[in-house]
Amino acid sequence: MVGVKSVPSPAISADDRSHEVDHPSSEVAQFGADQPLRLDCGIDLTPFQIAYKTYGELNADRSNAVLICHALTGDQHVANVHPVTGKSGWWETLVGPGRPLDPSRYFIICSNVIGGCMGSTGPASINPATGKVWGLDFPVITIPDMVRAQAMLIDRLGIDTLFAVVGGSMGGMQVLQWTAAYPKRVYSALAIACSTRHSAQNIAFHELGRQAVMADPDWHNGAYADQGIHPHRGLAVARMAAHITYLSDAALHRKFGRRMQDRELPTFSFDADFQVESYLRYQGSSFVERFDANSYLYLTRAMDYFDIAGDHGGVLAKAFAGIETRFCVVSFTSDWLFPTSESRALVHALNASSARVSFAEIETDRGHDAFLLDVPEFFDISRAFLQSAGKARGLTGKND
Amino acid sequence: MSVQEVLPLNGLAAEQSGPFRADHLLVAEMVKPGSKVLDVGCGEGDLLQLLETRGIDGRGIELSRAGVNRCVAKGLAVVQGDADTDLVNYPDDAFDYVILSQTLQATRQPKVVLENLLRIGRRAIVSFPNFGFWRMRLQLLVGGHMPRTENLPASWYDTANIHFCTIKDFVELCDTIGVKMERAEALDLYGRPLRLRLPWWVWNLFGEQGVFLLSRGQGK
């Protein structure tokens, strides 16, 4: 934990964040006692709410709906200014006017996952039974639970079949879960930088992050909200470690090398002498401003448990047997968190199911994070895949 | 492939033949409309695009990443893969036709690949450059060099083509593994079919490439 003391305290008030948890500034769907969310752990979660954003208009025959599934630390604010950080939407490179997902053409939906902290029910929400924050009393959730909740939201919005489900990383896992659980409801699926199961190495990294949170004395066994504090230091360390896995050796070298931060010579201390240290500390401290520590534990756990083949007798192809969904799988050469080999295993299973699948590996040194960055080849492929699926679906837009 | 002149083929309007290669037009003609096709070694997807215009559900496998990405960017269902190692992942009878266009000679195990084509597909269409073509023979006989042509310009030390054969060799392989030849065509240097019914030895001498429509035989 050397050097972590210098992670600055959050600049954004904790009140802003905790207000979003129960009263999000986006749309919210409430599900009462008559509509519990049946969780994999055997518990019925009720009542619960899903916070979501939509962009564009649903067409008359309700055939142009696109669901975007966000990654581990993402949220529903895909293409608008974030209510807590004030930053622009996390996927504005892909979503927006003239982008592959253009709201003039599609009705785009993105919901905060169950277990999240931006308005959907999660460990940071108030437990109506006690009037206090759930904390570790919140049941452990899985990727299939997240998708089940999204399906309830899609029902509520009156949509039967989604034209496309799109997501990267943990979002990609949800895309695959959608196709495995509701194949008839997904016309096309764009799964980016993801996997059908979380690898041992990835579980190991998540465990490292969770232990960092739990080692922070401010964590208080998850009951920090009662104390009016937040385990900033532990969560920042978790984020710093995770952030390294989102990049690549080449990208770090290109961006920082061994360059010093505002100094010529080493200080012979544990100050952030190197630019890369300073960058990581910034990543850690800006993350804790907007994210709940317990939510981080729950969502990383959900990814660890994810294994589609395991849910289908160990045979991945069985999960997709007879599926008519059009798939596009994308991986990035320098992504070592979800390497191309994982995507290839998925593609083999889809081939074995005779599914219609496109698979492109994109050359970049930017690591796992490439799916969030400006990578033109990725946009070209996404655009062409969606347009070709749209043509087959009979969608017409002004660009046709 | 240098195509200087393209003959319109049966069932295709002359203006449609414009942007397409003659050997692709011949292959497309062999595929029944409405069928499901896997193109192994689909390059940049030209044949798949031609098949799409004829209402055929086409999928592709391509070895080169650049080729795959260009195909996917055209909206084609193409995956990155290797004919030698990835065909085993496809189930039996998954396709009506599996096409191997100008790729057989670049595989490590042509016989295994051919067997896989006819396991995955009820029919296979295979085209390959004919090493028995008279200009090939002449280069070796007179020049004493490994042959090179406009269509196969690489030197022996950097060519991807490691298993060249002649039309005669291929016919013998089909016999060996009990594959039935439903249709055979030899194409001249410009990709035009040698229309006349000529004996095999003539095709083997004057055909620049062979195109075969194959189905499962009785086996041997």
Automatic annotation (TrEMBL), chain A:
Q: What does this protein do?
A: Transfers an acetyl group from acetyl-CoA to L-homoserine, forming acetyl-L-homoserine.
Asked whether the UniProt record includes Cell membrane among its keywords, one would answer no
Its chief place of residence is cytoplasm
Q: Which SUPFAM superfamilies match?
A: alpha/beta-Hydrolases (SSF53474)
EC number(s) stated in the UniProt entry for this protein: 2.3.1.31
GO CC term (a single one): cytoplasm
Q: Where is the AB hydrolase-1 domain?
A: 64-373
Which GO molecular function terms does the record list? homoserine O-acetyltransferase activity
- InterPro entries (UniProt xref): AB_hydrolase_1, AB_hydrolase_fold, HAT_MetX-like
Organism expressing this protein natively: Bradyrhizobium cytisi
The protein's name: Homoserine O-acetyltransferase
Give the binding site residues for substrate: 239, 369
- Read off the NCBIfam families from this record: homoserO_Ac_trn, PRK00175.1
Tell me where it resides.
Cytoplasm
Q: Where is the composition biased (Basic and acidic residues)?
A: 14-25
Q: Provide this UniProt record's keywords sorted from A to Z.
A: Acyltransferase, Amino-acid biosynthesis, Cytoplasm, Methionine biosynthesis, Transferase
Q: Where is the active site?
A: 169 (nucleophile), 335, 368
Automatic annotation (TrEMBL), chain B:
In terms of CDD domains, this protein maps to: AdoMet_MTases
Give the matching InterPro entries: Methionine_synth_MetW, SAM-dependent_MTases_sf
Origin organism is Bradyrhizobium cytisi
The protein's name is Methionine biosynthesis protein MetW
Entry's Pfam families?
MetW (PF07021)
